[in-house]
Structure formats: structure tokens, C-alpha cells
Amino acid sequence: MVKSTFYIWLCAVLMMNSMVYSVIKVSFTMNQKYIIDNFCVNKDKPMMNCDGKCYLATKLKEEQERQENKTAISFSQDFGIYIQQQSLTYLHPTNSIEQVAHTSFYQDWFGQTESKEIDHPPQV
Is the keyword Transmembrane in the record (predicted)? Predict the structure, then answer.
């Protein structure tokens, strides 16, 4: 029950993240009268037929800039971590993978089962 609730919640969060523009447009449509009365810059000019679209354009532009900033920051952080890890690998070659002693039980097990004789079928 807990897992399924978590998965449903996770799917909803991921879908909401990708549907931000749709949510803004639906919210605008539902509150259009209120937006026209309180936020519309062109309500003095009825010939423009703005109907609050100036406010919608402003909100969509803000969201687009926020998404671009978030992507740029995320990329720069990830790229910075990648560069840092690469430089640490080259600065300290003693910690490389080739020089670490392997302690796998499987390597020893496969070595013991190796047979040097050729198995022949039984004689009748």
C-alpha cells in the first residue's frame, strides 16, 4: 500500500513538473474575469481585445525564464562535479582502479575448478 501510494505521488509530481504551462493556462482560463479586473494592463483599451492575455504572456515568460535558469544551474553543477572528479582521478593515479587489490571470491573459485585433463566418455 505504501509503495503504490509513493509511486502514484511520484508520477503526479513528475507530471506536474512537465505540465506547468498547461496549469498556468487552465488557471488563467478559470480566473480570467478576476485577472481582467485586477491585473490587465490594457483594460483601458477595449479595442485591443486583450482580455488579460498580457498577464498570461507575462506569467508564461516568467516560467520559461525560471525553467531555463534551473536547467542552466543544474547543468553547470553537474558539469562542475564531472570536471572535479576527472581532475581528481588524474591528480592521484595511486587511487586508480587498476592498482586496487581485487578481493573477489569468484576469481578464486573459478581458478580451482579448472581441469587440465580432457574428460573422456565412459567405456562400455
Answer: yes
Nearest to 54 by CA among 43, 41, 66: 41
Residue 104 lies in a domain: no
Task: Specify whether the CB–CB gap between 53 and 39 falls below 8 A.
Answer: no
Task: Choose among 92, 114, 111: nearest CA to 102.
Answer: 111
pLDDT in tens, 9-42: 888 888 877 777 788 888 888 988 888 888 888 8
Higher pLDDT, 64 or 69: 64
Q: What is the pLDDT of residues 73-121, one digit of tens each?
A: 666 666 665 555 544 444 445 555 554 455 555 555 555 555 667 778 8
User: Residue for cell digits 591528480?
Assistant: 91
At residue 81, the 3 state secondary structure works out as helix
CB 76: neighbour CB atoms within 10 A? 10
In a domain, 67, yes or no: yes
Give the Cα separation of 101 and 105 in Å (integer): 12
Question: How far is Cα 43 from Cα 28, in angstroms, rounded to an integer?
Answer: 16
